[in-house]
């Protein structure tokens, strides 16, 4: 089993996700725990989520603005105030060199010990986390962590033109993939996770009370896989040591 850094060793976490709400579905409970311990957490959303929602009465530009606002509100529910957006097109993300550079830039700016992102692997047991944007962002983020952000000769313009020195993130946590080797008990943070998810009203309001039922079901399944007592809830990750 991969060794996992103790939270006491972590000063900063960077969560890199494709769309507003991805981080809240995957990791909001864990993040609430980290911020409660004084860990600084920064969100980087690759798209504005302009292809999401169910309302034909607003433009895609208006949807993007709404989803940015929803993500900022959701972040506050779990103690995060620094939320950044790269503005890539929702539904069209590819793991390009440009995306790798843009993520490496933020890694060098934030200088995180831990990076949280989506799995680049397709999950055949549960297809929803395997949106192509999720997989592309997971792949680009792993490449940005290793080798891009730590190599001073990768994207040299980041140092020469922006003064951003190389930085080594010590581990990456992958969510939504076909396998997990680390579970975080988030039972006490369920209300804050639900508050974050409900902040994404354009995506979750139609679920009503079914949202909590759905969240409890999959977090309970994670907890069972982790061997936690009945009634506990957990978020699941595959942890990659990158040092």
From TrEMBL:
Give a yes or no for keyword Zinc in this entry: yes
Q: Which domain of life is it from?
A: Bacteria
Give the record's keywords alphabetically.
Zinc
User: Which InterPro entries does the entry mention?
Assistant: GlcNAc_PI_deacetylase-related (IPR003737), LmbE-like_dom_sf (IPR024078)
Q: Which residues form a coiled coil?
A: none
A Pfam match is: PIG-L
Q: Does the keyword Phosphoprotein apply?
A: no
PANTHER family found in the cross-reference section: LMBE FAMILY PROTEIN, N-ACETYLGLUCOSAMINYL-PHOSPHATIDYLINOSITOL DE-N-ACETYLASE-RELATED
The name this protein carries in UniProt is PIG-L family deacetylase
Q: Which species is this UniProt entry from?
A: Actinomadura vinacea
């Amino acid at each position: 089993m991969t060794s996992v850094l103790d939270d006491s060793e972590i000063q900063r976490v960077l969560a890199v996700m494709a769309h507003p709400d991805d981080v809240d579905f995957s990791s909001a409970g864990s993040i609430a725990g980290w911020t409660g311990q004084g860990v600084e957490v920064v969100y980087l959303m690759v798209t504005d989520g302009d292809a999401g929602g169910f309302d034909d009465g607003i433009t895609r530009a208006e949807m993007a603005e709404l989803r940015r606002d929803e993500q900022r509100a959701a972040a506050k529910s779990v103690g995060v105030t620094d939320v950044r957006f790269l503005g890539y097109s929702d539904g069209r993300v590819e793991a390009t060199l440009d995306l790798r550079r843009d993520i490496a830039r933020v890694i060098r700016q934030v200088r995180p010990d831990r990076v949280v992102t989506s799995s680049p692997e397709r999950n055949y047991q549960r297809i929803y986390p395997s949106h192509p944007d999720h997989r592309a962002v997971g792949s680009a983020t792993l490449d940005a962590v290793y080798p891009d952000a730590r190599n001073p000769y990768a994207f040299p313009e980041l140092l020469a033109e922006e003064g951003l020195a190389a930085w080594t993130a010590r581990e990456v946590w992958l969510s939504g993939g076909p396998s997990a080797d680390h579970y975080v008990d988030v039972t006490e943070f369920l209300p804050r996770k639900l508050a974050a998810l409900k902040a994404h009203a354009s995506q979750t309001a139609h679920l009503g009370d079914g949202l909590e039922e759905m969240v409890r079901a999959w977090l309970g399944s994670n907890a069972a896989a982790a061997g936690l007592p009945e009634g506990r809830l957990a978020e699941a990750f595959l942890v990659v040591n990158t040092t």
